[in-house]
Amino acid sequence: MRAKRVTTNAKDQREDRKPSAAWLRQRLRWWYRTHRRMFRWRTEPRDPYIVLVAEVMLQQTQVWRVEPALERFLKRFPTIEHLARAARRDVLVAWQGLGYNRRAVYLHECARAIVARFGGVIPADLAQLRMLPGIGDYTARAIAAFAYGKDVAVVDVNIQRVLSRVFYPLQSQAEQLPIGKVRRIAEQLLPRGGGRWWNEALMDLGSLVCTKRSPRCSECPLRRRCSSAGLLLPAEQQAKEEPCYRNVPRRLWRGRLVELLRQRSSCTLAEIAELLFGSAAADDVAWLRNLADQMASDGVVCRDGERLELPP
DNA sequence: TACGCGTGGAA
DNA sequence: TTTCCAAGCGT
Question: Within this chain, do residues A65 and A126 fall inside the same structural domain, yes or no?
Fold first, then answer.
């Protein structure tokens, strides 16, 4: 008769499930061979410019939305030199449908900085990448690993979620370990020479299987050693309030304003207030002027007196 | 550190 | 219909 394992508490029992790095690498490499996703930014040989544009587009944005936008964008701006030379307005027009229009401004300035400072060669060095506008910790690591095959641990929200769940027993689908803790784990796990495939595999697993809501644990290659397999329950939602005007969140007004200026070359504040609010009352124009000024400081619009347009 | 920043399909 | 969410970044 087999003696029952003696455990002091439930947590210790879960700790036993933690997989070794070797096991994880073997399982994930096997899974990745048959389940990896192919994208324009993953075609070989890797083009760092395509990786850069794609990674900026992918910030907080789903793949299905980025794929067609990236094709349009690359047709319009085939090289980093084309992008650097372009008018800001054309970059914002090409950004249509992606949202977070400030990213287009950052990407444009990023391209200009790379042409000016690095002769148009996108850096492979993390510190140099981090100094560029719109390139944060994630994107710098993504470019180093995916474009140049550097052995750096990439931690996006997908990888953070996968590693959090695998190494710690989580009961809510919303829970995850702090980013710093996850990065330490990720750096320990990263196989030599695995900068590309390992990070992509973890990311694909998080996107396809270890999803935030309704994770497909039964299809997961890591389920036998995952601390959270079978534990995850839906998170209780808690919406937070956004600053609104006329019952519409401020950033929606920002989006509508940029979209309006994509269609028309130039408008007065009063015309825009009429189009957006159906009213050009003094309060509405004043509120719009304030909005436009902040957007101008973000670089997504250009205000000349009472006229508003996309920046040249 | 917490907040503001777009979009539109899915739940 | 409403709510939630998706390869983050800068301030």
Answer: yes
